[in-house]
């Protein structure tokens, strides 16, 4: 297959490497020359030039800055090119709603939204295990890591994570953890939250976000996201009818612990061994996308599912601005 990668920042480079490693050809469409093309991949700076010189594009991976996603998707839809869209789908709720409307109006099915944590072994195990815990009472999900540590070979101040005009912000960049919370628990009714810049990091985006989401049955979800923790933190806790679940993972491994009401003891019910390659979440995502192109796979995350994540993000922003609880389905856009 001849696959297009739009954007060549850190995530674009990862996707380009994975495409080539899987035996497919890759070409680039770039909006800027900020990152060197050390792999010598054929590149274009105009979509029209790309179409003129490339006889056929089987699919595209959209890795441009979030602020450019909507325009890039419009170009791909016009040409009927299947696409894998990096998260978040757009920089704000209004743009995501517009994108969802265009995709729906065209009846376009050959796409996926790249929330790659859906492929992580810890989260897959948890999703399958949830029916065992009974009624869920409360859940806490957290993720935090010091932004300058994210990409050691890159100046963090020059990344989209640090620049508001490129669609960055901690609650945007770490939308993965909001998305998997909704995957586990469904869509909330109300929320209250704060999102702010509290550190001395040289960025124009918010670096800390906390929120409480309430469901119709009164159960609650606590979210915490930050660019600030010097230790890599990612995991959660769930208190439920039949027991309490705790999970965590990092680059060295991970585990799920279950404290059973019946046994009155904790047990490691899943262990991710050290050496797990996190890039596997991306290669499995790519494999699914290639299946979508061939017509034998379906989207892992469709635009309506991604839109729900953006509604939660929009409601957190509105709650922080208005300092009150927000009905999530009535969020402004």
Could you name the CATH class of the largest domain?
Alpha Beta
Which architecture of the largest domain does the CATH hierarchy give at level 2?
2-Layer Sandwich
Assess the beta-strand content as a share of residues. 25-35%
Discrete helix count: 10
- Taken in chain order, the helices and strands follow as EHEEHEHEHEHEHHHEEEEEEEHHE
Overall morphology: globular
What is the subunit organization of this protein? single chain
Topology-level CATH name of the largest domain: Dihydrodipicolinate Reductase, domain 2
- Domains (count): 2
Mean of the pLDDT scores? 95
Task: Kindly report the spatial arrangement of strands forming the biggest sheet.
Answer: 14-13-12-11-7-10-9-8-15
Gyration radius over CA:
20 Å
Q: Please provide the count of β strands.
A: 15
Distance between the termini: 39 Å
Secondary structure class reads alpha/beta
Describe this protein's structure.
The chain is an alpha/beta fold and 333 residues long. Helix content is 32%, strand content 26%. The strands form 2 sheets. A 9-stranded mixed β-sheet has the order 14-13-12-11-7-10-9-8-15. A hairpin with a 5-residue loop joins strand 9 and strand 10 (220-226).
């Amino acid at each position: 297959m001849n696959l297009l990668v739009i954007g060549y920042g850190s995530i674009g480079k990862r996707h380009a490497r994975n495409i080539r490693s899987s035996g497919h050809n890759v070409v680039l469409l770039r909006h800027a020359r900020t990152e060197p093309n050390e792999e010598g991949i054929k590149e274009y700076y105009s979509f029209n030039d790309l179409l003129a010189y490339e006889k056929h594009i089987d699919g595209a991976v959209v890795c441009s800055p979030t602020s450019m996603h909507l325009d890039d998707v419009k170009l791909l839809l016009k040409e009927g090119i299947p696409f894998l869209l990096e998260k978040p789908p757009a920089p704000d709720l209004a743009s995501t709603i517009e994108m969802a409307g265009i995709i729906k109006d065209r009846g376009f099915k050959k796409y996926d939204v790249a929330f790659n944590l859906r492929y992580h072994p810890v989260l897959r195990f948890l999703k399958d295990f949830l029916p065992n815990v009974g009624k869920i009472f409360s859940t806490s999900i957290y993720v935090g890591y010091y932004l300058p540590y994210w990409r050691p070979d890159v100046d963090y101040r020059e990344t989209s994570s640090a620049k508001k005009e490129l669609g960055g912000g901690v609650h945007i960049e770490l939308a993965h953890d909001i998305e998997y919370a909704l995957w586990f628990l469904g869509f909330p009714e109300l929320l209250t939250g704060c999102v702010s810049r509290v550190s001395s990091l040289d960025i124009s985006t918010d670096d800390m976000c906390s929120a409480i989401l309430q469901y119709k049955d009164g159960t609650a979800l606590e979210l915490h996201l930050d660019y600030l923790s010097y230790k890599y933190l990612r995991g959660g806790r769930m208190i439920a009818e039949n027991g309490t679940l705790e999970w965590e993972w990092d680059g060295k491994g991970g585990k799920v612990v279950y404290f059973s009401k019946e046994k009155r003891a904790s047990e490691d019910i899943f262990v991710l061994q050290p050496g797990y390659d996190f890039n596997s979440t991306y290669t499995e995502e790519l494999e699914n996308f290639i299946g979508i192109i061939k017509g034998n796979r379906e989207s892992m995350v469709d635009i309506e599912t991604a839109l729900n994540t953006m509604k939660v993000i929009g409601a957190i922003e509105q709650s922080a601005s208005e300092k009150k609880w927000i009905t999530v389905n009535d969020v402004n856009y």
